Amino acid sequence: MPRELVLTRKGLEELKAKIEHLQTQRRREVAQRIKEAREFGDISENSEYDDAKNEQAMLEKQIAELEEKLRNARVIDEDEVSTDVVGVGCTVHVKDQKTGKSQKLRIVGSAEADPSQNKISNESPVGKALIGHKRGDVVRVQVPRGPARELKITKIEA
Predict the structure, then answer these.
(1) Any idea where the Transcription elongation factor GreA/GreB C-terminal domain is (predicted)?
(2) What is the structure's pLDDT at 96?
(3) d(C-alpha 25, C-alpha 99), whole Å
(4) d(CA 12, CA 112)
(5) Per-residue pLDDT, 2
């Protein structure tokens, strides 16, 4: 059974735009490369043609995978996100109990995760640990590298 993909409305729009780009612009570019490679002559010994056909196969595979994600997507309505408990679509303010450092994290589905923008996946160790907890809770998180961290939830926003 395919895995459910959790997306925000913005993530859904970005996924659709990426599929659209690959199906239109990228397909035309690859088709043009194949056409140009055919003009070089005998395609049985034409490395340009083989390379272009391989690129076409990889592109079609990528499109198929993205369409599969789209079919299995569950969109989170950000207007209905609860601020009582941490869930996908929430922005959570946490304070590391050891270092005293505060951080603002947005919980998103795995397809939208971008740690550089403080968007963490609901499937990541920190995301999994925070989900379901309330403001004021101290959550113990076992991170991949180093000792476990204790994070206090100071605020939950939609």
Answers:
(1) 82-157
(2) 92
(3) 48
(4) 9
(5) 63
What does DSSP say about strands 119-121 and 102-108: parallel, antiparallel, or unpaired?
parallel
DSSP label at residue 3: P
- Domains, the chain, in order of start with CATH, read 5-76 (1.10.287.180), 80-157 (3.10.50.30)
Cβ atoms of 90 and 127 within 8 Å: the answer is no
Record the tokens describing residue 58, joined without a space: 């990889």
- The count of other CB atoms within 10 Å of the CB of residue 140 is 10
pLDDT at 120: 93
CA–CA separation, 21 and 1 (whole Å): 28
In this structure, which amino acid lies at residue 8? T
Which pTM does this prediction carry? Answer: 0.72
Residue (of 105, 82, 111) closest to 92 by Cα position = 105
* Cα–Cα distance for residue pair 85/81, rounded to 1 Å: 9
Helix (H), strand (E) at residue 17: helix 9-21
Q: What averages of pLDDT result for each successive group of 10 residues across the chain (158 residues)?
A: 77 93 96 89 80 94 93 82 85 92 92 90 91 92 85 90
**How far is residue 55 CA from its own chain's centroid?**
23
